[in-house]
Structure formats: structure tokens, C-alpha cells
Amino acid sequence: MSTVKLTVNGKAVAVDVEDRTLLVHLLRDHLNLTGTHVGCDTSQCGACVVHIDGKAVKSCTMLAGQADGASVTTIEGIAKGDELHPMQAAFRDNHGLQCGYCTPGMIMSAIDIVHRHGGQLDEATVRHELEGNICRCTGYHNIVKAVLDAAGRMKVSQAAE
Amino acid sequence: MYQTTYHRASSVDEAASLFSKSSEAKFLAGGQTLLPVMKQRLASPSDVIDLAKIKDMIGVEASGDTLTIKAATPHYDVATSDAAKKAIPALAYLASLIGDPAVRYRGTIGGSLANNDPAADYPAATLALGATVKTNKRSIAADDFFKDLFTTALEDGEIITAVSFPVPQKAGYAKMPHPASRFALTGVFVAQTKSGEIRVAATGASQSGVMRVPAIEAALKANWSPSAIDSVNISASGLLSDIHGSSDYRANLVKVMAQRAVAAAG
Fold first, then answer.
1. Integer Cα distance of B151 and B117 in angstroms
2. pTM for the structure as a whole
3. Segment 62-81 of chain A within 8 Å of chain B by CB
4. What is the CATH number of domain B170-265?
5. Mean pLDDT of chain A
6. Is there a smaller number of Cβ atoms within 10 Å at the N or the C end of chain A?
7. Is the distance from CB of B90 to CB of B264 less than 8 angstroms?
């Protein structure tokens, strides 16, 4: 057992876990943040994507101990109170989800894509960059539309800040 | 995953010392291979020693005719490094093709080389560019480093600290990725060194891991152009054959990827 200290959605936490604990299980089982999903458990599907120090990574492929000292943001941490994050709002408006299982990972990856590409996003880039996230409803078309829509909204909201 | 003990090393010496005190330790860099393997219970190290936070092991530096990538540098950092893009654009491009964006944030060049997966990308560049693998004990030429599938010249407890790539005259990389994993069904790196030597290495093709392709090297020496490879015959003997592609298919891919790589190199 080790004590892992990290910041999750802006709150400092210390959690006693077995050394073999994956970050996704620390989040789900110890902090009850069940918005982060375990899909394939083999690093392919991206349902478990969270942000570690601002970068979208797969929390099923990281030991909790590796995140010691890091700042983690999960799907629960991106809305401002009742106001959805622009990416969440765009997914809702564009019907970017069907069963919703892949959605938290899609949204966390998509925010990272927009951060990296800024205003230069096009459809081909979004499709290419989402290659680490799998939607088994095959609802990619509206997901891509939502990401492109959100890219515009995020630019506007950044300019406003 | 079986029980294990996690250690975070703050220096290469500390990592080596932790290793020598453990019964069956493994070094952990980005963990993008080791952790999935541990989850499948195919590996059960008593201890994992995390190298990813060792400051001396992260960074990309160009100096004279050498580009040095420290071992714990993630693929994303190499793909976006101005130094790498300027010195060896084909290498930065190769890094941008590994896995997916989330994997590229975590996976490292040292981890990739130490693991020596037969379909990994970095071994092709390391071998074709005639790079030198630096460890905490010695320097190993790429020609002596790759031994067989998942097997390298590294000794037990030896840590890759950096890889030095001589800047070539020109180089190119092309791969046919597996559509789900993005591993190379076959990838070919071609390089023309500053002294005029032609080196070509293929990954994902051979049953023994990354390999030089002498027939294509000879053809390119006579005529550096994609069409020079048209008449080369690549034998399917000893090539991988699986659900994703037969050995004949991969033999053809070696040619086609080499042609695309030469075209990209210009």
C-alpha cells in the first residue's frame, strides 16, 4: 500500500491504494468519480481518458502511483457549476452521443485536440486525432461535428476571458 | 494485475540501485506496453521502477551533426520538437505516427527500444540512421543493439539513458499501420548518411524483429529514386504471417513502403 497524493478536479486528495492500482480505479472506486469509464481495458478504446497536467491520457494504462503529485481533471471537473463545458454543450447540441459510454473519453480527448490545434481544426484532423477513441455505436459523424462546433465555441470563450 | 511494488526513481543511479535490491524488477517508462502486459498477467515484476520523472532523461537536443533524444522523452515531445523537426524531420514524423495521441503523451523512445517489439516504429529509425544507444554503462551501436523479437543487447538492470542520431543527408519513413493498434504492419525507414552510405530498415515485417534490407540499399545506392526499387525482389521467407497479413503481402509492403519513404525523403 502507498499513499498517493494528487489534485483531482481542483481538490487535493490523498488516497491509500495498493501499488498495482490503476489510476482509473483510484478515480472510480476510491473517489467515486464514475464518469471515467473502463471500456476495453487494453489501451485501445479511450473511454478512460482523463487529463493529467492538461494532457489527455488513458487512465487505465497508468498506475495510480505514476500520477502522484499530478493534477488530474475528469469529466466531472470540466463544467462550471450548471454551465456545461463548450465541448459538452456541443456534444448535446449535435447529438454527439448515442449510448454515451465512450462520451466522457471522447470529450476529454476532444478538448485536448482543440487545445493542440486551436483554430486550425478541420474534419480530417479531428477524425485522425480521435483514432484512440472508439465508439461502438459507430456514431462518429456527429461526434466529429460536435468537436468542430466546440472548437469554434472554445475559441470564442477564450477570447472573452 | 498481480501485486507489485512501485518505486519512483529521481536519478539513474537510484533506479539502478533499486533494481539491484529487488528480486524481479522491471523498469517503467511510459508504461504503454509494460502495463497492458502486466494487466494480462503475462508479466509479474516484484517491483516496478519508474524512470519517467528523472529530469536528466528527458529532452531533445541538437548539437552539430547529432540529434540526441533522452530516453524518457515521450513521443509527443519528439513529434513536436523544433530541434528534431529541423535536424531529422523523418524522425519527428515517425514519432507522430506511433499509437494515438494519448499513447504519444506517455510512451517513450527508451521504452520502445528496450522492448524491441517487432512492429514498433523507433527501431526502424534507430537502425537505418545508424544511431547509438547510450546506457548507464556504455554506448551500443544500433547494428549491435537489436538481437531478436523483444530481445536486445541490454543486460539485466541496464538502463537506456539516451539515443544519439547522426543527422543524415536525407531520410524518410513510411508505414502501413494496423488500423486499430497503429503498430506497423510494415514500416520502412530509408536514410542517406552524410558520408553517402545508404541504410534501409524495415519493422513489422520480419519474424526476428527490425531488419536491414540490403537488396533495397543496393538498388538505392545505384539510383536514389522510388523506381529503382521496382525490380527488387524481397523474399517472403522469414517474414511474419498472421491474421493481418501474409508473408507475401508483407514482402510487397517492404517494397512499397520503401518507395514511399524514398519519395518522402526527396
1. 9
2. 0.95
3. 62-63, 65-66, 68
4. 3.30.390.50
5. 95
6. C
7. yes
* Residue position matching grid coordinates 498495482: A20
Report the distance separating Cα B76 and Cα B80, nearest Å.
6
Using CA atoms, how far apart are residues A148 and A139, in angstroms rounded to an integer? 15
Residues of chain B with CATH 3.30.465.10: 55-166
Buried b / exposed e along B8-21 (16+ C-beta atoms within 10 A): bbeebeebbebbee
pLDDT tens figures, A54-73: 999 999 999 999 999 999 99
Number of H helices, E strands in chain B: 11, 14
| Inter-chain touch B100–A131, beta carbons under 8 Å | yes
| Sheet of B211-212, strands arranged across | B170-177, B184-192, B198-203, B211-212
Cβ within 8 Å, pair A56-B35? no
Does B32 lie at the interface with A, CB-CB under 8 angstroms?
Answer: yes
Asked if the C-beta of B117 comes within 8 angstroms of chain A's C-beta atoms, the answer is no
Write the DSSP assignment of A52-63 as a string of letters: ETTEEEEGGGSB
What is the spatial distance between Cα B238 and Cα B247, in angstroms, rounded to a whole number? 8
* Domain B55-166, CATH among 3.40.50.720, 3.90.640.10, 3.40.50.2300, 3.30.465.10: 3.30.465.10
User: Residue B46 and residue A19: Cα distance in Å, rounded?
Assistant: 11
Task: Indicate which of A4, A19, A22, A129 best probes the interface with B, i.e. most B CBs within 10 Å of its own CB.
Answer: A19
Taking only the tens place, the pLDDT of each residue in A96-155 is 999 999 999 999 999 999 999 976 799 999 999 999 999 999 999 999 999 999 999 997
**Which residues of chain B does CATH 3.30.43.10 include?**
5-50
Task: State the Cα–Cα distance between residues B212 and B254, nearest whole angstrom.
Answer: 11
- By the CB < 8 Å criterion, does A1 face chain B? no
Largest Cα–Cα distance in chain A? 46
**CA A85/CA A131 separation, integer angstroms:** 22
Indicate the residue of A19, A113, A133 with minimum beta-carbon distance to B5.
Answer: A19
Q: How far is CA B125 from CA A6, B209, B259, in A?
A: 37, 13, 16
